[in-house]
Amino acid sequence: MTKTWKELEIYQPRVLKLLGNSIGKKRLAHAYLFEGKKGTGKKETAVLLAKSFFCRERTDAEPCGTCSSCRRIDSGNHPDLHVIEPDGLSIKKHQIQSLQGEFTKKGLESSRKFYMIVHAEKMTANAANSLLKFLEEPGRDTMAVLTTEQVHMILDTIQSRCQVLPFSPLPSRAIRTELENQGILAYMAAAAAQMTNNLEDAIELSRNDWFAEARAIVIKLYEALTVRKGQALVLIHTQWMPFFPDKEKQEQGLDLLLFLYKDLLSIQTGMEDLLIYIDMKETLEKEALQTGQQRITERVLSILEAKRKLQSNANPQLLMEQLVLTLQEG
């Protein structure tokens, strides 16, 4: 079911406030271009806008959610809401022409019509030119929403006929809340939300057995570094390198290690609400009491330097061996 304006506002407060005000004042544009990275809520916002556009029982901007229009949109079969998505690799001219044909017909539910073009950057040149004419002569009670992850690929003439709304990367706190709402364990939600600002990727990551095991190995390394120092190098050879075999996975491992040391700084600066390894709070609090802030900061910087060297194609095993020695000395 579509989220409400209040629920979506934590993800895109500026966009939702602007649209909400426009609905309340009856000043909606005839065409919008939602642009931003994957997983920032563009399509969800477009569907919610369509509900508000058609709902006759809404309160301010909020659709009622129970009328026939709202229910039909939730089930994906509203006759006056048309969604165009790529047919294969592109959106073709015949898809836009078919859409135009639909708009010559009288609305089945009301006089209003709403269309969405998802991944609008994938329109062929002919499709884009067909749409341009459509945008130049908007029908009364007609609204369009185009969504794109690559706004630079949209014709300037199309952009100029739309109100462009940029969607920002999602804040980690919002992703974390959404993951917990979906039943993800709090400590897994906290870690996944730090790894990406894409909600879809965070959901997939938090449910991935590999990610859960990666987190466990990082905790083992941290314990070896702080409690069983003689075992840290052995762990690098026997567990770390086999489990993180390529650069992408090695970087994820270093990120998870970095989060542990950042948690120590969060505790020392009284910002426990930012903790990522919340299931290790008691252990981290003890370590934070025993270690100076400067020393922890130096360890954070050494992990960041290891990440930089990894990107410069340094030998991963030698890099991790050196990092372990540095963290132990620190």
Textual characterization of the structure:
The chain is of the alpha/beta class. The protein folds into two domains: 5-169, 3-Layer(aba) Sandwich (Rossmann fold), CATH 3.40.50; 208-329, Up-down Bundle (Zinc Finger, Delta Prime, domain 3), CATH 1.20.272. The protein is built from 16 helices and five strands. The chain has helices spanning 5-9, 13-24, 42-54, 68-75, 93-102, 125-136, 156-159, 172-181, 186-195, 199-206, 209-226, 232-243, 247-268, 281-290, 293-311, 316-329; strands at 31-36, 81-84, 113-117, 142-148, 163-167. A five-stranded parallel beta sheet has the order 2-3-4-1-5, sandwiched between helices. Strand 3, helix 6 (125-136) and strand 4 (142-148) form a beta-alpha-beta unit. 35% of the residues are buried. The model has no long low-confidence stretch (mean pLDDT 90). GO terms for molecular function: 3'-5' exonuclease activity; DNA binding; DNA-directed DNA polymerase activity. Keywords: DNA replication, DNA-directed DNA polymerase, Nucleotidyltransferase, Transferase. This is DNA polymerase III subunit delta'. It is an enzyme of class 2 (transferase). It catalyses: DNA(n) + a 2'-deoxyribonucleoside 5'-triphosphate = DNA(n+1) + diphosphate.
Identify the notable features of this structure and list them briefly.
330 residues, alpha/beta, Zinc Finger, Delta Prime, domain 3, 2 domains, five-stranded parallel β-sheet, 16 helices, 5 strands, 57% helix
Shape field? elongated
User: Tally of extended strands?
Assistant: 5
User: How many domains, in number, for the residues?
Assistant: 2
Task: Work out the helicity level.
Answer: 55-70%
What is the residue-averaged pLDDT?
90
Q: Indicate the radius of gyration in whole angstroms.
A: 25 Å
Pfam families: DNA_pol3_delta2, DNApol3-delta_C
GO molecular function: 3'-5' exonuclease activity; DNA binding; DNA-directed DNA polymerase activity
InterPro entries: DNA_pol_HolB, DNA_pol_III_delta_C, DNA_Rep/Repair_Clamp_Loader, P-loop_NTPase
GO cellular component, one term: DNA polymerase III complex
